[in-house]
Amino acid sequence: MNVNPFELKPIPMDHCFTERKELYGYSYDKYSVDPYTKLRIILMNGAEFEQVGFGHNAMRNEARGDLRRDLAVIRRSEQMQQKRIACLKPISESVLENTIAYEQLAVDLTATMAAREKNAYVKHCLDFALLEDFDHLYRYADLMNMETGEKAEDLVGCYAEIMPGRPTISEHRHPFDDVKRPITPKDDLLTKLQVNIITAAEQQTMNYYMNQCGFYKSDLGRRLYQEIGMIEEQHVSQYGSLIDPNCSPLEKLLMHEYTECYLYYSCAESERDPKIKSVWEELFEQEVAHLHYAAELLKKYDGKEPVEVIPNGTFPELLVLGPQKEYVRNVLKNTVTETGMREDFAEIDALPETFDFFDYQKRVNGSATGVASHEVIEKHIKELGEDYRYQEKDHPVIALRKRDEDNYVLGRVKGKVGI
Q1: How far apart are CA 231 and CA 87, in angstroms?
Q2: 306, 101 in Cβ contact below 8 A?
Q3: How many independent structural domains does the chain possess?
């Protein structure tokens, strides 16, 4: 079915304001929920956080009072949507259990989008960060197994493998090397959508980890959230820099609303939980109203028609989350020793000795023994004899196959090959 939200009749904007009792209702059962239902909830929570943050920033840079009030109307409804989505998560789900879902989302979402991305440069950016989120899943899974005895494979439903990616210690780069080239208006609509989606998803993860690092119950856990939170900041810098900077705020608002329409429709089409499916359908209806409202603002204040920003509003291929094990393995095998090199990427061995990466590593990491992402694996090995993994066959990178030793030089020290 071809769906163009610009052609749908919107509900009145005031019908988007939700009665309070609807904001705190149904929560899923963490023991029986499909892992991809959890992932969709995290994804849409992030999309709403992104839109609310954008709305606040747009208002702060806008002097016209009427437009400021118009932005407030959309923003209030988005806030209500976000609060409703956030409470679909049950009270019984711990921070660390939720974190495992965050990282599974990062892996499966990034791989799903990379596999269908038409812009080779954007695809490379997705593949690059994919290996880092994949490694984060492994580090948090080992922390969980060590502290609670839980196996993360039970949480991910065995849909994702859990094993080392590009070692987190090797991911710390100079800020110059996380700023990439932006896309242009000529890029495919799907590319524009995917850049918006991944930026929102990574920003939510960054905020979550930055906030949780001060509240986690163990020192090692606090340091792990702190370290990985900084890598997520690098990912937000990378993905956010891909967004076309030449669009006006109202053009970006229209694209934000279109992105949310696309996501809610995608979620509704693939959701298995009937109660949550109805939430996606209801919020899609609200987002259609937001989209039409944003389109009117664009015409009123910028003098532009929506078709000038989104020439064909029919949804492209919908986003369907699913296992991406072989795709991840292939990216691991071929690019695990890459790092950033300004707007591009390079093998670690190709960098000059004086490149910023090496000095930054020394300043930030110092001795590897004090880096939480390395320490959590070493501690697991010391206490339990080997690291925790869930893998269906040998690791595709020979240097990462050892279960009784954490590799903290791959992708970080020249001459340490992975194949």
Answers
A1: 27
A2: no
A3: 1
